[in-house]
Design brief:
pyridoxal phosphate, 16% strand, alpha/beta, four-stranded parallel beta sheet, 301 residues, 13 helices, six-stranded mixed beta sheet, TrpB-like_PALP_sf, Rossmann fold, TrpB-like_PALP, binds pyridoxal-5'-phosphate
Length: 301
């Protein structure tokens, strides 16, 4: 599947003589957001060819990966089980838009306390899940494994080699790893982590053996799914000026960071930048519910 690059025209870009295009992976599907589709593709093929009829994976209550897995499972006729962090959700998961959608697409949930969730890769947890749900194909939290990275290599096309920089938001680093692997050696790949953590460099090095990439670690806004008024207003301005909606967890932080770098003359005149819009838009209604409770401005959709 080839996705078009949309050129962006904004006064700042003109002033700095930097060109910017956005690869609209968010348009792949309304429920399976961009990179999650890429990450699931070869895993579902593998699960089916190995004879599994259930796919089991892990996530938090607003996880794009959970939403995407549920829908992909429905499309490809494989049962899905979501092991969700937070026992308290047993009572109130129907108030959560992500989980409601995943359930509507046939996902079965297992809510576990935080300690069990931390130990989710341990044999005793995995085998008790096997007792409850039968044999399953296991996908890690966030969906990152080598088949997922293979899928993400397909985000870039040969024509994209004409860009000097390729930018992508980072959670586990799986998507970025695929992009680095598919990048041309003359390109620089910039990853924008959506969370704090020094482990990401090492995680990514497990999957890539190139040096043409860096992580821009200053734009996590305090941690995973943390937001500020400034971020929300950037997302709303960006939507008003380009008609492109960004999500507050990943792509909003990446573009905020990239615009900060452009403002501070990180890029020389004539630089051509490609940004990957990985999607994540299903998470906005959940985030807006949280913002509303805190009396903060909402993301305009
Ligand atoms: C999950 C996700 C990411 C991060 O992907 P990783 O492969 O975990 O680094 C980026 N953007 C969006 C919208 C996502 O949902």
């Amino acid at each position: 599947m080839e996705i078009e690059n949309q050129p962006i025209h904004l006064p700042l870009l003109k002033e700095k003589q930097v060109s910017l295009s956005i690869k609209r992976e968010d348009l792949i599907h309304p429920f399976i957001s961009g990179n999650k589709y890429r990450k699931l593709k070869y895993n579902i093929i593998a699960a089916k060819s190995q004879g599994f009829n259930t796919l089991l994976t892990f996530g938090g209550a607003y996880s794009n990966h959970i939403a995407a897995t549920a829908y992909a499972g429905k499309l490809s006729g494989i049962k899905t089980v979501g092991v969700i962090r937070g026992e308290e959700l047993v009572e109130k998961w129907t108030e959560n838009p992500t989980l409601k959608l995943a359930s509507a697409h046939g996902m079965q949930f297992k809510f576990v306390d935080r300690e069990t969730y931390r130990n989710k890769e341990k044999l005793e947890v995995l085998s008790s899940l096997k007792e409850e749900f039968g044999q399953y194909y296991l996908l890690p939290e966030g969906g990152t494994n080598s088949l997922a990275i293979r899928g993400c290599e397909e985000i870039l096309t040969p024509q994209d080699a004409s860009f000097n920089y390729v930018c992508c938001a980072v959670g586990t680093g799986g998507t970025l790893s695929g992009i680095i692997r598919a990048s041309s050696p003359k390109q620089q790949v910039l990853g924008f982590p959506a969370l704090k953590g020094d482990f990401l460099n090492e995680d990514i090095r497990k999957f890539v053996h190139k040096e043409n990439w860096t992580l821009q670690t200053e734009y996590h806004f305090g941690g995973y799914a943390k937001v500020s008024r400034e971020l929300i207003s950037f997302i709303n301005d960006f939507k008003r000026n380009t008609h492109i909606l960004l999500d507050p967890v990943y792509t909003g932080k990446m573009l905020f960071g990239l615009f900060d770098m452009i403002t501070n003359d990180y890029f020389v005149a004539g630089t051509k930048i490609l940004v990957i819009h990985t999607g994540g838009l299903q998470g906005i209604s959940g985030m807006n519910a949280v913002l509303q409770k805190k009396n903060l401005p909402l993301i305009a959709v």
